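Progress report, Aim 2. The chain analyzed during this reporting quarter is listed below.
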Amino acid sequence: MQAEQSEIALDVARQKLQVQEATERLHEASRAARIASLNRGRDEAEREVKITEYRLSRMEMQAPGNGVVVYLQNNSLGFDSRPFQVGDQVWPGAAMAEIPDLDTLEMEGKLEEIDRGKVDAGNEVHIRIDSLPELTLTTTLRAISPLTQQSFEFPPSKTFRAYAPVEIPDPRLRPGMAATMDLIVARIPNAVIVPAQAVFTRQGNPLVHVLEDGSFRPVRIEIMARNPEEFAVSGLAGGSMIALVDVEEEP
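Predicted structure tokens for the chain:
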């Protein structure tokens, strides 16, 4: 009986050993799987680090030469588009900035549809810079856009684009400066220039009020050319004192 009990105990011990060995093999397989997963995570993290380091190296750009950096519009923002700035997301191949050649500056102006037929490439142009009132640049009109462009101003309008190169650039000029472009379409010798608000109409005829002997006298004139601010007229002596308001009622 004692021998049988010993054999039974031996079988039980063998079964426990088998269970223990199976459990150990299971734990070993689990540990191996865990280690393999961690190794894959490490390898993936190393690849991400290398990709990030490569992207960071590509984020540093060197200009091919000296100049003024002009940041371009970030049109991905829709109606809130503005020049690129720190923190913006960019897409592959996006142009974010440019360094224009200041020796090849060009003036871009708006040409009203009503004036398009009076202007052609080659007309003389006078460019006046708003921030440099003492500077007037003389050049020629290079080209006019074949189609009108819609403006986003209010009220919206359609205008042609006129382009005139700055042939003798000034070192103070910078891209994006506001300026006025005066197109010379014709020359009127010995013309008298009067402000637009000084010209009035009587019975369909233009006139101005001239100061003589302390009072104003209406003088009929002929309008030879005009722009929104000034009229070129004949029939009026140069240097005359004229009124800027209508000093008499229309009969």
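The helical segments are 2-58. Residues 196 and 230 are 5 Å apart (CA to CA). These observations will guide the mutagenesis work planned for the next reporting period.
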